[in-house]
Design goal:
By secondary structure, the protein is mainly beta. It has one helix spanning about 1-10, and strands at about 30, 40-45, 45-50, 55-60, 65-70, 75, 85-90, 95-100, 105-110, 120-125, 130-135, 140-145, 145-150.
Length: about 150
Amino acid sequence: MKRNLSNLLKLALVVGGLTISSSALAQSYTINTLQGKGDQHIKRHQALRSTNGVYSLLVQDDGNMCIYKNGTDFVWGTMTQNKDGAILKMQADGNLCLYNSKDGHVWSTDTYRGDASKKGSRLVLQDDGQLVLFNSANAPIWNNSKGRLY
């Protein structure tokens, strides 16, 4: 299992529909919403990595989305195993969602209601291992430790 996960994480730079950019402010890789241009996403066997390369967010074959440290140490997960999680989408409406292979909803941050201050705009896997969703004003509105921050 550790070898397979390590091999998957070597494929960490995501291609095909995902914009990965370095952010000097958060010093990590990000997924951004593109208003009117469709959702950004991570599929199975793709990963989002922290800038320092220590942490990886991975959509696994078992349907769980997890953060690992150094490729093997489990940090956090959506606990959606056996639910066929197939793709993580940063939607234009501000909600970060995990969908199954039939496009059915499996998990989300529930950050699509209210004004722009309560909607996600940018997902960041920080160098400390925290997965943080920021609004368009660059304020954190959700993280993997506490959930919604409002």
